[in-house]
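Protein data:
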Amino acid sequence: MTDLFDLSGRVAIVTGASSGIGKTLAGALACHGASVILAARRKPQLDKAVQEIEACGGRAASVVVDLANYHDAETHAAQLSEPYGSADILVNAAGVNLREPVDEVTTEHWERTLAINVSTPFFLARALVPGMRAKGWGRIINIASLQSERAFPDCIAYGTSKGGVAQLTRAMAEAWSSDGINANAIAPGFFPTELTAAVFADKERSAKNAAQTAVGRNGVLEDLSGTAVYLASRASDYVTGQLIFVDGGFTAK
């Protein structure tokens, strides 16, 4: 029987792959057979992530790139396609959350947040779509958030951008699914990453978030791996335009 989760022969690009969610998902895709290109700004962290994947028998390469400038998406796409050829899978995991009171949000921070969290995922995906279309198969996985549907304090720019990611995902699915390119989004609950360091540093707040879930705990990064592999594989052939919450039931309560 064919293994629906086998990614052998697939090429995956993962942005924001030097740490946190991006690094974890890159490792998961590699463990299931994909050749993975890890993209981020920090070379030492990228090199370490590639070494960890290779030590487990995976195939990985890294490309140092600053994705904040979405005007260079075509150039970025070409750079990211150099190691293994055109991508079958794109995981848009790069993101920023500057956490500012609403009255202190600057135009510079607003524009940077929307550029990295919404604009780059669209323009990078669009630049990679022709290669996917030529194969008649592709997967785009965006990283949404609880804030795609909920509001939290001091995060108006981030929340706006993640609401945009949810709609961007639906619009991508409408535009490209007929070409065999499915687009979906994972909306994580509370996971320990660089972006959530302040939340987890507050023990009382962290415990409150855990209590809000149905399972009674906050997430660990490996909790996201199965959903990512599913969405990247043939197992999700008839799933597109969806926002999947991996939040331990936080949004169910």
